Amino acid sequence: MSLTQAPVLEAGQLRLRGPEMRDFEPLAEFFADPDRAWGFGGAETRPDAWRWFASNIGHWHIHGYGYFTIEMTEGARPAGLCGIWNPEGWPEPELGWLVFAPFEGRGIAYAAALRARQWAYDALGFTTLTSNILPGNARSVALAERLGARYERTYQNVTLGEDMLFRHPGPAELDADGGMEAYA
């Protein structure tokens, strides 16, 4: 059962849905792995991962958006997170993503980010989004650029330190289908 009012979004073989209690274990494993978690703020203890998980639930209740759990439709297994993030101190709403280790290399983050961005533009009325990426996170930079985002500036993130801000194309700048072919 979802812990938020998040809608369920379909994206081909993916489903984006609100967080559920069963999502905590794979998230805690992700946060405990320093090689994987550094781009999302660094390795965390299990209690820190719990606070992040609870913060995301609260974010949904406060803003009406947050990180979706990316779920594979076949087998209903959590594959990662993707959504819109804008906590206190953030420069503006951000489109973010992470994929759990067993699911890397399948285009999951790309398809999920396209779907989450389209939802933010269509359902939330956003006209722009950013992706805030730590310097050295080449894979996230490549994905942001594949999504059409362009480097805008470097700034001091209130929790992560130096961060690069990439600007996504707005709804008017996207192709007529908004890139939806990736999960149609």
From TrEMBL:
<dbReference type="InterPro" id="IPR051531">
    <property type="entry name" value="N-acetyltransferase"/>
</dbReference>
<dbReference type="InterPro" id="IPR016181">
    <property type="entry name" value="Acyl_CoA_acyltransferase"/>
</dbReference>
<feature type="domain" description="N-acetyltransferase">
    <location>
        <begin position="14"/>
        <end position="171"/>
    </location>
</feature>
<keyword id="KW-0808">Transferase</keyword>
<protein>
    <submittedName>
        <fullName>N-acetyltransferase</fullName>
    </submittedName>
</protein>
<dbReference type="InterPro" id="IPR000182">
    <property type="entry name" value="GNAT_dom"/>
</dbReference>
<dbReference type="GO" id="GO:0016747">
    <property type="term" value="F:acyltransferase activity, transferring groups other than amino-acyl groups"/>
</dbReference>
<dbReference type="Pfam" id="PF13302">
    <property type="entry name" value="Acetyltransf_3"/>
</dbReference>
